[in-house]
Amino acid sequence: MAVSPPTPAPARDPTADEARRPEVAPGLPDAAAAWLHAFHTGERACLERCYREHVGAVEQVIGPIVSGPDRETLVHEVFFRLLTEEALRRRFAGGAFVSWLRVVARNQAIDSRAAAVWRSRSWTGASSAPALSRASLSSRRSTCG
């Protein structure tokens, strides 16, 4: 029985593949896909509208975590990240934008508060952390196996 060699696959035209592939979010209505593309690429008008429509939601979610002048600074930092970090914008793939933005803001507020607490602790001098001498470290190593 003779075996014929495999036939080579037809050459693919990469431009044809690009034309068939939807650019953003398959299955979304055209207006939503256009908005998502504008958001992902950082179009100024789109990001300005996001700020105007959602600054209140960001303030609301940050308020219980961070207060005073740090609150206002953090609100602007969230939107600054949206303006400058394409990777952050691309994490939003569709759905409820305000919900996604609230999670981003909440996470940033928690990180900011944790960093502030860490900076406020004094780990030198009269701190509450026990001083560890070389001898105490050696004894701990030997007991830990």
Features:
disordered C terminus, 7 helices, mainly alpha, 145 residues
Can you offer a commentary on this structure?
This protein is mainly alpha-helical and 145 residues long. It has a domain at 37-116: Rna Polymerase Sigma Factor, Chain: A. Helices cover 65% and strands 0% of the residues. It has seven helices and no strands. The protein has helices at residues 14-20, 30-41, 44-62, 69-84, 86-90, 97-120, 134-144. α3 crosses α6 and α4 crosses α6.
Outline the low-pLDDT stretches.
Answer: 14-24, 136-145
Q: Main beta sheet: strand number and arrangement?
A: none
Which architecture name of the domain at 37-116 does CATH use? Orthogonal Bundle
Tell me the series of helices and strands, N- to C-terminal.
HHHHHHH
- Rg result: 26 Å
Strand element count: 0
What is the overall pLDDT average?
A: 76
State which percent range the strand residues make up. under 5%
Terminal CA distance reads: 68 Å
- Principal-axis shape: elongated
CATH fold assignment of the domain at 37-116? Rna Polymerase Sigma Factor, Chain: A
Helical proportion, percent range: 55-70%
Structural class by helix and strand composition? mainly alpha
CATH hierarchy, class of the domain at 37-116: Mainly Alpha
Summed up, the helix count is 7
